[in-house]
Every structure is written in C-alpha cells, then in structure tokens.
Design a protein that fits this description.
Udp-n-acetylmuramoylalanyl-d-glutamate--2,6- Diaminopimelate Ligase, Chain: A, domain 1; 2 domains; five-stranded mixed β-sheet; 11 helices
C-alpha cells in the first residue's frame, strides 16, 4: 500500500537539498510565510489571474511570474497594485520570478504585507518551470518501502525478494563483484514516477552498505569502487527466491512470465528455487538479460516454440 505526500511547506521547497541545489532560489520578501503549504505538484503561471479571471485558478500551487507576466505588469504603471492584490488575497503558497526580470517594488511590498514568500530564481523561465515541475512531481509521488535488494544489472533494475536468510545479499555481493551495481540492500524505497515507471532507491542510512551473514556490514564502494553503487534505478524485473522442495512446480519454458503489482503497476516477476549447487548470481544475470531482450520485442522461449511448431508441421505431426 503506497502513500502520497499531501503537502510540502514553502520552507522545505526553499531549503531542502535537491530543490535548493537545482532551483537556486533567493528569498526577497515574505519570510513570515515560510510555513505556508504547497498542496499541488504543478507550477502555475497566473497570467489570467492578473487580468481578473480566477474561475480555474490553481491557488494551491507555486506561482511563477515569467517575462510575459512581468512585462504586462510593467505596462500597467500605477495600476500594478490593483492587478496584484486579488492574486495575493488568494493566499497562494509563494511567488517566484525569474532572474531575467528586474524585480517590481510592488511585489516586495505586497509579499511583506500578506506574508507570502517572494523568491527570485537564477534560472531562466523555461529552465525553472522544467526543474520545478520535475522536483515537485518527485516530492509528491506515491511511494512505499518494500523488503528486497535492488541492483543495476547491465542497465536493468532487478529487485531480489525472498524470506530472510535465503541468500539475497550473498547473491547481490556476487553480482557486484562481477561488475554490477548495488542500489539498496534488504529495504528498498519505491516511488511511482508515472503510470509506467517505478524508481527504487536506498534509505539514506543504508546507502552503499549491505549486510552479509557471517561477514557483517560491508561498504561496497570501499570494497569495489564507486562503480559498485547506483543511487537509484527504475525497477524492471522482480526475482523471488523460494526454497526448493521436491515435487514443486518449476518454470521450464518461460513462455508466460507472471507479474507482481507494486503501487498499481505490474512488474514481471520470476521465481527461482534455491537449492545447493545453484549459481544464483549467474541465474539472476541471465534473467535480467532475457528481460532486456523481451523489452525490445525478442522472447527466446516464444521463438523456440514457434520454431518447434514449424518443425512439427513440416513433419506432419
């Protein structure tokens, strides 16, 4: 079951690491309103609001004034305040304008009066809109935490699942030693990026660390170098380790790959029985490569089945 962030404080929008780094905001006025809440992941350009149309106004969104809006306000001369007051009275969370525009004194005056944070970004209008939209979509994305070890195997995000002690971390260690990258060990944070992609990452505390029974806590970056760790990865395949039992049903053809639902999305899910003598790392590597081929339209099991049917037809069977 996933959860969504329902709101983000303007202070977090201004000060949190990723947003501070990418949006490059400077607080101009309205410091007392940093506790206001952003409740929508979209960014609004209030062009229609400046001419008095508020029927479909996104008042819960970050408001952005670009060169067009600022140019229009300049053209109003002494009527600027009358055009802006209805906007500020809507209790918007904050207002941002671009470095391409010289600040209007009336904006600072009204921001102070209504306690609405006014920011200036160093980015151009187009760049700010793109960066801000992406960061807010990430912040508001549906998310969950699941038990499993995530790796980047030749560009494929593979999530290893199975009960505790079955060998997920040992398999992951063998794969890292072969040149693949660890994303998270044992617990994976999952975000739904859109209607067809899940992104997995590690909890901050566990980043680049893994636990192997008998060895303890290992730092894969210190052991294998920086290429051994990947900060996040799209989840393309789930592999579930199950204990082998005599007589259990095992997949022999791979014609039909079952799936598992995470945050409403279906992810291919392969079961691999675990028993002595099996090279799990090699099997996982092969499964990842086979899934990559299926992703571009080639299915070796179906190709073999088609070839077999053609031979049977040719022999009159």
């Amino acid at each position: 079951m996933g959860s969504n962030l329902e709101s983000l404080s303007v202070e977090s929008f201004y000060k949190s690491g990723e947003m501070r780094k990418h949006l490059r905001l400077k607080l101009i006025a309205g410091k007392g309103g940093l506790n206001r809440l952003i409740e929508d992941k979209a960014v609004n350009r209030p062009a229609l609001a400046l001419i008095g149309y508020f029927e479909i106004f996104g008042e819960k969104r970050v408001q952005f004034l670009g060169t067009g809006e600022i140019g229009y306000l300049r053209s109003l001369g002494k009527k600027q305040e009358a055009a802006l007051i209805p906007l500020f009275e809507k209790a918007i969370p904050c207002l941002v304008f671009s470095s391409e525009c010289a600040p209007l004194p009336i904006l600072k005056k009204l921001a102070q009066k209504y306690n609405i944070p006014l920011f200036r970004t160093e980015l151009k209008s187009r760049d700010f809109m793109a960066e801000c939209t992406l960061l807010l979509e990430t912040a508001f994305a549906e998310r969950c935490t699941i038990q499993g070890t995530l790796l980047d195997i030749k560009g494929m995000g593979v999530l290893l699942e199975g009960k505790s002690g079955i060998g997920k971390s040992e398999c992951a260690l063998a794969l890292v030693e072969r040149g693949h990258s660890l994303v998270s060990d044992d617990m994976t944070c999952v975000r739904k990026l859109n209607d067809h992609q899940l992104l997995g990452s590690s909890p901050d505390l566990n980043r680049s660390y893994m636990e192997c029974r008998g060895l303890g806590i290992l730092n894969v970056v210190q052991l294998f170098g920086i290429r051994a760790f990947c900060p996040d990865k799209r989840i393309d395949l789930i592999i579930t380790f199950v204990e082998w039992e005599e007589g259990m049903a095992e997949e022999r053809t791979g014609l039909d790959i079952p799936s598992k639902t995470i945050l409403g999305l279906e992810i291919p899910n392969i079961q691999i029985p675990v028993r002595p003598g099996r090279d799990l790392a090699r099997l996982v590597e092969a499964a990842a490569l086979a899934q990559a081929l299926r992703g571009i339209g080639y299915n070796s099991a179906r190709e073999y089945n088609k070839h077999l049917i053609q031979i049977m037809k040719g022999n009159g069977l």
